[in-house]
Amino acid sequence: MRTTTVGDVKILLPDLDPDDLDRVTELADGLTEASVEGASWRGVRLEDCRIRSSRITGGDLSESTWEAGSLYGCEVTRTDFSGATLTGITIERCAITGSRFTGTRLTDVRLKDVLFDGCRFDYATFQRVTAAGSVAFTDCTLTHSTWSTCRLPGIALRLCDLAGLELNSCHLDGADLRSSSLRGLKAPLDNLSGVTLAEGQLPDLTQLAVTALGLTVRND
Predict the structure, then answer these.
(1) pLDDT tens digit string along 92-130?
(2) CATH number of 2-213
(3) What is the model's pTM?
(4) Judging by beta carbons within 10 Å of its beta carbon (0-12, 13-18, 19+), is residue 22 exposed, middle or buried?
(5) Where are the domains of the chain?
């Protein structure tokens, strides 16, 4: 069993043996124990597609639509999901690295034991995304994205750029935001209830509170 720890979050990761994976290029109705490199599935429409114990490298799923199904026990590296729509899928025990989710829409997505490392989520939309287990974002760009009605307690957001991220009716109790930039974050203060911050982030939190409460600060 392979694990990693981000802050206080321990994540189970896929433990794939390259010798056990079959090289494929077609997605068909799903993948099991497959290795895929450089495949272009741009604009593909998937329904109840299940991808298990597979490695996807340099793939193109931009502008795709994926409804229901799951991504389980997979390694996804340098893959483009820009402009994709992911609805009602489960992502579990996956490591997703250096991938692009610019403008991606994630709705009713369930996450469990997922590591997003070095990924771009700029202008992405998270709606009713839930964490059913350990989830971490490390060195990710979340600028100008929107999270609405998400339930992500205890997640880790470390070394992430949150400028312009909008939080609406989100539950992040216990989330670890240490080392992430809060400058430009847009959120009602109750969306940050129970999160963990570092002392150096307090000036940015103060500015967020001043903006959220509409305070006027004057130097007499």
Answers:
(1) 999 999 999 999 999 999 999 999 999 999 999 999 999
(2) 2.160.20.80
(3) 0.92
(4) exposed
(5) 2-213
